[in-house]
Each structure stands twice: as structure tokens, then as C-alpha cells.
Amino acid sequence: MAKMGKRIGKAREGIDREKLYDLSEAISLLKDRSTAKFDETIEVAMNLGVDPRHADQMVRGVVNLPNGTGRTVRVAVFARGDKAEEARAAGADIVGAEDLVEQVQNGQIDFDRAIATPDMMGLVGRLGKVLGPRGLMPNPRVGTVTPDVAGAVKASKGGAVEFRVEKAGIVHAGIGKASFGAEALLENIRAFADAVQKAKPTGAKGIYVQRVAVSSTMGPGIKIDPATVRPAV
């Protein structure tokens, strides 16, 4: 524990906790300090000027990161017949109908993303209390309830990231790995910020993107000047 504390302390050296850094500089600092024995995830967090308790201030969407996420995503598809075969051919890890619903009801949730064909939602709807709190419930707004199961599976495997604002008005996501090149991380963060900007709800008042920070799994958070993330912000 002391060793971990010492390492985190060293990672924070040279970082001004109050300064708003240029995004490029922040990524360089993060990469230099990502010294864990595993490939750390790089995360971005954005504080938004919304109150998600109001329906017209909910922020939700999906973004296809141009350079992927660097993590292996296990995908489950609720489908029958030809659509089930399409899902398997596209690389889905788990495919099923009533049998898959039963597995999930029994607590067997061995996947990171769930996709369903529209005709399956009568069945899948029963899993709301199980999948909803985990952020796994298929939803047409983010492309996970669709007849194009092959396209949805490929997008999920290729770097599609769902986002949803939390109660405190924060939206965050893993946008790559410390092993990624700086340019790849820059492109991914800007794609994510662009998607959040486009998802701005009608009820948002005042400054929409208020604060931005990036961090690595074991490293400190670094505050970013929002103007350097997306010039239009």
C-alpha cells in the first residue's frame, strides 16, 4: 500500500492541480506517468451544465472512436433465426433468445454490451431491472436495438462507446490506452467531446461544457482548458 502511495505521489509531481492544461500537454503528462505494470486506460470526464433529473436536460449517446478503445469488448445479442446467424458471423460472443434471457435472469452476465433486434424487446424488456443499473440495457437511441445486428456488433467491437450523464452532471468514458500514440488519444478525446456537444439537450442553459479532465487508471486527474478539446466548446 505504501509503495502504491509513493508511486501515485511521484505521478503527481510536476502537475499543477489548479492549472488548466492544453489537451496535448495533458496527454503527454499522462503518458509519461502511466508506469503501472498493465496498459492503463485513459479516461476523460466532462462536467456539464445540466440537471439530468429533468428529461429535457438528459445527455445520452454513442460515439465511434476513430482509434478504438484498446479493450476487448464482449458482445451479447438477443436475436433469433437469420439475425442470430448474422450476429455470430459478425463476431458476437454470446447469441440467444429465451435461453439468453434466462441466463441473465439467473445472474449470468458475461458481456460488456448487449444488442437486440426490435422483435426481441418484448422479452428483453423483462431484464430492465438487471441490465439497466449496469448500463447494459439495449436502447434504440444508441443503436443497440436494431435490425442491423451485424453492423451493431462490428461497431461495438471496433470502438463504439456509449455515454450517459450521471446525477452530478458528469459524463465520462475510457477513450483509449496509455500505449496509444498521443495523436490517437487526441483524436479519440476530440471525437468523444464532439459527440457530447452534439448531444446537448434542449433544456441546457448557460455554459454547457463547464470542466474537462483527463486521467489514467493509476494516475492523477489533469484539468483541461475546454477550448483546446473542441474549439467550438
Automatic annotation (TrEMBL):
A single Gene Ontology CC term: cytosolic large ribosomal subunit
Organism superkingdom: Bacteria
Record keyword Ribosomal protein present: yes
Gene Ontology terms, MF aspect: rRNA binding; structural constituent of ribosome; tRNA binding
GO biological processes: regulation of translation; translation
Keywords: Repressor, Ribonucleoprotein, Ribosomal protein, RNA-binding, rRNA-binding, Translation regulation, tRNA-binding
InterPro entries tied to this protein: Ribosom_uL1_bac-type, Ribosomal_uL1, Ribosomal_uL1-like, Ribosomal_uL1/biogenesis, Ribosomal_uL1_3-a/b-sand, Ribosomal_uL1_CS
Record keyword Ribonucleoprotein present: yes
A Pfam family that the UniProt record links to this protein: Ribosomal_L1
Family: Belongs to the universal ribosomal protein uL1 family.
Known partners and oligomeric status: Part of the 50S ribosomal subunit.
Record's function text: Binds directly to 23S rRNA. The L1 stalk is quite mobile in the ribosome, and is involved in E site tRNA release. Protein L1 is also a translational repressor protein, it controls the translation of the L11 operon by binding to its mRNA.
Xref: HAMAP family: Ribosomal_uL1_B
Protein name, UniProt field: Large ribosomal subunit protein uL1
Organism: Aureimonas pseudogalii
